[in-house]
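Incident log, structure service

09:12 report received: a user says their structure output differs between two submissions of the same chain.
09:20 pulled the input from the user's history:
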Amino acid sequence: MKRLRKVVPLLKKKDVEGKGYGKKRLATTLLSPFTDPLRKKRTITVSDAEATPPCFDPTKPVPIDDVKQFLELVKPSAKKRGYAQPWTKVWKVYFPYNLQRCHWVGLEIDFVRHTATVYDSFIAFTSNSKLVKYLEPISDTLARVLYNMRFYDASEVEKVKQKGMKMSKFMPFTICSNADVPQQCDGTSCRIMTVKFIEHLSAGICLDKVDPSKMTYY
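09:34 re-ran on a clean worker, output below:
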């Protein structure tokens, strides 16, 4: 299996000024988190080149503690009822994710495209290499747990079930970055911006309606 994935733009290029920190970056598919940094088609620093890539063994089972924690998170309960549909009834989910305990981003997990897309309100802070490194628990562990618990087979969404039939073996989620979103005007609004991104995305509302100047109101 080839470990290097082609970097392909997800959206057409827009020459638009970002709100806050410079121009917006294009939404791009990042390289697999298990690719040797020396093979990546981008400029890397000496520290990047010397870094040891994460160990990836597709034959290694998921630790039972990880499985238990995941099942505890998604299992139905009286306390959780009304907050979200069972995962077997959806093809896309959104949630906030903290990168190295210092920056929040919005994540979209698409079970049909098999992608983990990042919505980042502070692209000047978050490099592609950081996303690849800190999203391994999502791109690898979450994908592995879902695969091992036969999530795709149990799905009630036909296109998700069809995707599972096309995957003959475990595949990590492809990490994507969608930075064509409003940018925060300070260094502390990432949490509120992330919540607003998720709120708008889950409701099908354009993210351009999120106004960074209204943080106090939000």
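09:41 both user submissions now match this output. Likely a transient worker issue. Closing.
09:42 reviewer note: The longest strand covers residues 92-99. Residues 88-214 form one domain.
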